[in-house]
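User: Can you recover a sequence for this backbone? Please restate the input before giving your answer.

Assistant: Of course. Working from this structure:
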């Protein structure tokens, strides 16, 4: 339905929808360069979606993945260019761990506010997005800025902090798939996953069963933030090679789209991320080869998200309408 509405809008602009979608398929999924770009973007989207998914499974809506990605990316970049003499198999994991820790700190703070003061995580994480972005901008401009450069950026990370490609394809995509498999196993086979899911489904029942709800809420946000910070590190290592705040815009919010599209299922996120990654990869080609404004991709993604979440809205409206039904008589 989203693609159908998109075709009508493309035709209304005086362009051919068939040509536009043909360019999207060729540039996003069939050409070697396009497929490499698609998988690279899909890997980041999978990890960002997993960060949101962990929170959703624990009953938490982590809107602050963007700020956590920025925090993790800057921390990764600092370790990536500052520490010399390490082999690649130590430098990359070390930098990723540091990035994940800083993402976890931002997420964990929102979780602490939720558990201790009852502050809704949507409000706190939205505010933390702005706070994290401001701190990161300040540090990049004043503390970590590369000298003699007009642009606000850090130094290039060392070669030992850059992820190698496997047969020309991005390593980050493989890492993302393995992470999705691990998180799926975590929720299905471990006590921690069971506790997170129990609190997400019914906090009162989880408390009655002896689960520490407050501790689990904090853990869920820490885990979610850590994955987001890890995502920022992977993006820096594989794509940019240094830190510029503007390069990371939208990663956390695209993660929300992927997570909702996959219905908070770690494995179902993978095909959704590949689909969105392909659309992002072909975004500029649609403009140059089909004459269609690249914003059509953002519109298509918004429509996809709308139709994917429509069943949830229908169930919510139906359940609320039942609670408002009246009886035939007073008190009956």
């Amino acid at each position: 339905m989203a693609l159908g509405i998109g075709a009508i809008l493309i035709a209304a602009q005086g362009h051919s929808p068939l040509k536009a979608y043909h360019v999207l398929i060729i540039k996003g999924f069939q050409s070697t360069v396009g497929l490499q770009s698609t998988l690279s973007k899909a890997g980041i989207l999978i990890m960002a979606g997993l960060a949101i998914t962990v929170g959703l499974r624990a009953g938490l809506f982590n809107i602050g993945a963007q700020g956590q990605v920025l925090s993790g990316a800057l921390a990764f970049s600092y370790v990536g260019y500052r520490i010399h003499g390490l082999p690649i198999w130590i430098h990359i994991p070390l930098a990723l761990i540091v990035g994940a820790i800083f993402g976890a700190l931002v997420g964990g703070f929102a979780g602490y506010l939720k558990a201790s003061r009852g502050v809704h995580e949507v409000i706190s994480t939205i505010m933390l997005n702005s706070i994290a972005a401001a701190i990161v901008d300040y540090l990049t401009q004043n503390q970590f800025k590369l000298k003699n450069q007009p642009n606000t950026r850090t130094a290039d990370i060392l070669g030992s902090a850059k992820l190698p490609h496997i047969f020309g394809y991005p390593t980050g995509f493989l890492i993302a798939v393995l992470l999705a498999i691990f998180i799926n196993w975590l929720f299905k086979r471990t006590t921690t996953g069971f506790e997170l899911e129990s609190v997400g489904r019914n906090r009162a029942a989880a408390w009655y069963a002896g689960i520490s709800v407050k501790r689990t809420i904090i853990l869920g946000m820490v885990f979610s933030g850590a994955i987001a910070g890890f995502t920022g590190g992977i993006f820096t290592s594989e794509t940019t090679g240094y830190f510029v705040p503007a390069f990371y815009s939208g990663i956390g919010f695209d993660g929300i789209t992927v997570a909702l599209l996959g219905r908070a299922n770690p494995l179902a996120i993978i095909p959704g991320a590949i689909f969105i990654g392909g659309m992002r990869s072909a975004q500029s080609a649609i403009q140059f080869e089909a004459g269609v404004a690249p914003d059509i991709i953002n519109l298509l993604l918004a429509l996809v998200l709308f139709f994917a979440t429509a069943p949830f809205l229908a169930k919510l409206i139906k359940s609320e309408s039942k609670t408002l039904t009246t009886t035939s008589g007073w008190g009956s």
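That completes the design. The chain has 14 helices and no strands.
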